[in-house]
Design a protein that fits this description.
Largest sheet: 8 strands, mixed
Helix content: 25-40%
Distance between the termini: 24 Å
Bound molecules: 3-acetylpyridine adenine dinucleotide
Oligomer: single chain
Shape: globular
Structural class: alpha/beta
Length: about 550
C-alpha cells in the first residue's frame, strides 16, 4: 500500500519509499547506510546473489586490488577502520568481499537489500515527483529519489564471437566468474584479452593449464605489484591518525596516498630519470609508477621516456625477443589504465604458454574444438574471455530509464553521456548517479570517491527535506558547461590519444567521448562550491 512518507526526504510524497538504490556494491551499501541513518525509508535492489558489486562478480584467479588495502576501505566509521585488519598491503578479491560482508553485518544493512533482483525500468512520474521502478521479479515500487549505484565497470563486454554456441568446452568471462573453484589442471586454455583482468589471471592459469594460449589484440603496459603482507608498523602509523591519513590522501590528484612528484621528467639527466623509474618500479604498484614524474601523461617526451624504460624491462624479463617485441606496447603510456601484475611478463618464458598476436587478424570464429584466427586453428578445452566492460554508462543504459516527459536516457546520451558533475542528469529529476560520467571516479581510488558522492547526495536530500523541496535536477546550461570543462581538461593530457574504455572505444558503436573528469581535489572543491552557492547549477522546486 502506498504510504505518505513522513520522513525528511519525502515531504508531501505519495511514494512508498523515500529512496530506491540500484546496486549493492560499495556505493549502494554506503548510500543505504547514510539515508537510513537520516530516518529515510530505502530499498536496495541488487542483481547478484550476494553483495559487493565488482568484488562479488570478479572472482577470477589472481583478482586483486591495485590500491592499497588501508585506503581501499570505508572511512565513514572510525571504529570500523580501527577494528578491521587487512592481512596484505594490496587485498585479494576474497579479502575485499569478506570485508564488505562484514560491513553489511556490522551496520545491519542486509535487511533492506533485495538480492537476485535486477531493476529493468525506472520512470519518472512528473505529477508526483517520484520514480516508479520495476524489477525482473515483478516488484513495482515508487520512491522520491532513485539513486543509481550501478558501478563503473559492471556491464560486461562479451564480443559477439561467431560460433561460440558450438564450443564443446567451458567458457568464462572474468567479470562473471563462477563461485565454485575452476581447476584448469591438464587443460588447454585460451585467454582472450590482455587488460588488467587478463594480466592478473594469466600467471595463475598458466601454472595449472597443460597449455595456455593468450590472444592479444593490443599489448598493455604493466608494472609489478609486489604484493606482500601488510607491514604492522605501517598499519600502526596509519591507524594512529587515520583521519589525517585520509585527509592528506584527498589532496592528491588520484585521491590516494601516492604522492605524485612535482618534477618534470625531462628536467632530469637521463641517468637520474632512469634511477627514479627504477625506484618506483622496485616499489611496485601502478600509482607510484605513474607518479614518478608530474608530466608522464601530459608531455610526449616524458611519456616516451617511460615507454623506453618499460620496453627495456619487458625485454629483460622475457627470454624470446620476438615475444618481448609483441608484448611491448606501441601506444601512449598511461592512456589506457596501467596494469599491475605478479609475474606477468615472466609467464611467457614458460614452455606451456603461447602468445598469439591477433592485432592484424581478429578471432575469425569459434567452433566445437576451439578458436580460429589468421587461418590457424587453436584447439582448447576452455576459453577465458577477459574482454572488459562497457564502462561508466553500460550498466545504466541497460535499464530503461525515462525522465521528465518520458525522455529516454539512452536517447539523451546517444552522442555520449551528459551529466552535471557525474551526480545528476538534466531532465531526470530526483535521480542521482554515484560516480557517474563526468566525475573523477575511475581515475581515483574508488572508495573515497564513492564516499564523497554518497555524502554529497545524502546532504542534498537532507537539504531538500529541510526546505520542503520536492524536486531537484541539473540545469541544461550547467550540464553543458561541465561537459566542456571535462573535455578541456582531458584534451590537455595524453589520455585521449589511444582507444580505451575511458573513451568508450572498446565497445563497437559507442560514441568516442572521454567520460571521467581528471582531477580529484579540484572536483571535490567544485562540489563544495555548488552547495555553498545554494546548489548552483541545479533547479530546485517544491
Ligand atoms: O578489461 P580491458 P579488463 N577480440 O578493457 C580485449 C579495472 N580492473 O577487465 O585493447 C580480442 O582493460 C581488449 O583488447 P583491445 C581496471 O580499471 C582493475 O582487463 O581492445 N580481444 C583488451 O586487451 C581495468 O582497466 C583491476 O585491443 C578483445 C581486453 O580484451 C578495467 O577494470 C583488475 C576483444 C579487455 O581489457 C577493465 O579491465 C582488473 C575482441 N573482440 C580490472 N574485445 C585491479 O585493480 C576486447 N578485447 C588490479
Amino acid at each position: 500500500m502506498p504510504q505518505k512518507s513522513n520522513s525528511d526526504g519525502g515531504v508531501g510524497s505519495t511514494a512508498e519509499l523515500d529512496a530506491i538504490v540500484v546496486g549493492a556494491g560499495f556505493a549502494g551499501l554506503y548510500m543505504l547506510h547514510r539515508l537510513r541513518s537520516m530516518g529515510l525509508t530505502v530499498r536496495v535492489f541488487e542483481a547478484g546473489s550476494g553483495i559487493g558489486g565488482t568484488w562479488y562478480w570478479n572472482r577470477y584467479p589472481g583478482a586483486r586490488c591495485d590500491v592499497e588495502s588501508l585506503e581501499y576501505s570505508y572511512q565513514f566509521s572510525e571504529e570500523l577502520q580501527q577494528e578491521w585488519q587487512w592481512p596484505e598491503q594490496y587485498s585479494s578479491q576474497p579479502e575485499i568481499l569478506r570485508y564488505v560482508n562484514h560491513v553489511a553485518d556490522r551496520f545491519d544493512l542486509r535487511k533492506d537489500v533485495e538480492l537476485d533482483t535486477r531493476v529493468i525500468s525506472a520512470f519518472f512520474d512528473d505529477a508526483n515527483n517520484c520514480w516508479k521502478v520495476r524489477t525482473d521479479r515483478g516488484d513495482s515500487v515508487s520512491a522520491r529519489y532513485c539513486i543509481m549505484a550501478t558501478g563503473c565497470l559492471s556491464s560486461r563486454n562479451m564480443p559477439d564471437f561467431e560460433g561460440l554456441e558450438e564450443f564443446g568446452g567451458s567458457w568464462y568471462h572474468t567479470g562473471n566468474w563462477p563461485h565454485e573453484e575452476i581447476d584448469f589442471t591438464g587443460l588447454r586454455v585460451a585467454v582472450v584479452g590482455t587488460g588488467s583482468s587478463a594480466i592478473q589471471a594469466i600467471p595463475v592459469i598458466a601454472k595449472q593449464a597443460a597449455h595456455l594460449f593468450v590472444f592479444q589484440r593490443t599489448a598493455n603496459y604493466s608494472v609489478p605489484g609486489r604484493d606482500g603482507p601488510l607491514d604492522p608498523a605501517v598499519e600502526q602509523r596509519v591507524k594512529a591518525d587515520y583521519a589525517g591519513f585520509r585527509q592528506s590522501n584527498s589532496a592528491q590528484p588520484f585521491g590516494a596516498s601516492t604522492v605524485i612528484s612535482d618534477e618534470l621528467a625531462m628536467d632530469l639527466e637521463p641517468e637520474e630519470r632512469r634511477r627514479r623509474f627504477q625506484t618506483q618500479w622496485d616499489k611496485g604498484g601502478g600509482l607510484p609508477f605513474l607518479g614518478s614524474f608530474a608530466d608522464l601523461i601530459l608531455d610526449r617526451e616524458a611519456n616516451a621516456a617511460a615507454i623506453e624504460f618499460i620496453h627495456e624491462k619487458i625485454h629483460n624479463l622475457v627470454d624470446d625477443k620476438t615475444v618481448a617485441d609483441l608484448l611491448a606496447p606501441k601506444n601512449t603510456f598511461g592512456c589506457k589504465r596501467l596494469c599491475v601484475d605478479t609475474g606477468y611478463y615472466q609467464t611467457y618464458n614458460r614452455g606451456n604458454v603461447t602468445l598469439v598476436d591477433i592485432s592484424g587478424a581478429p578471432i575469425e570464429r569459434i567452433n566445437r574444438d576451439g578458436l580460429t584466427t589468421n587461418g590457424q586453428d587453436y584447439q582448447v578445452d576452455a576459453i577465458v574471455f577477459a574482454t572488459g566492460f562497457d564502462a561508466m554508462t553500460g550498466a545504466l543504459l541497460k535499464i530503461d530509464v525515462r525522465g521528465s516527459g518520458g525522455v529516454k536516457l539512452g536517447e539523451k546520451w546517444a552522442d555520449g553521456p551528459r551529466a552535471y558533475l557525474g551526480l545528476g542528469v538534466s531532465g531526470f529529476p530526483n535521480m542521482f548517479t554515484i560516480t557517474g560520467p563526468g566525475s573523477p571516479s575511475v581515475l581515483t581510488n574508488m572508495l573515497p570517491s564513492i564516499e564523497q558522492h554518497v555524502n554529497w547526495i545524502a546532504e542534498c536530500v537532507d537539504y531538500l527535506g529541510e526546505n520542503e523541496l520536492t524536486r531537484i535536477e541539473p540545469l541544461v546550461e550547467a550540464e553543458d558547461e561541465w561537459l566542456v570543462t571535462v573535455n578541456e581538461v582531458a584534451s590537455q593530457t595524453l589520455f585521449t590519444s589511444c582507444n580505451s574504455w575511458y573513451l568508450g572505444s572498446n565497445i563497437p558503436g559507442k560514441p568516442r567521448v572521454f567520460m571521467p573528469y581528471i582531477g580529484y581535489p579540484p572536483y571535490v572543491e567544485k562540489c563544495k562550491e555548488v552547495v555553498a552557492n545554494g546548489y548552483e547549477g541545479f533547479a530546485l522546486s517544491a
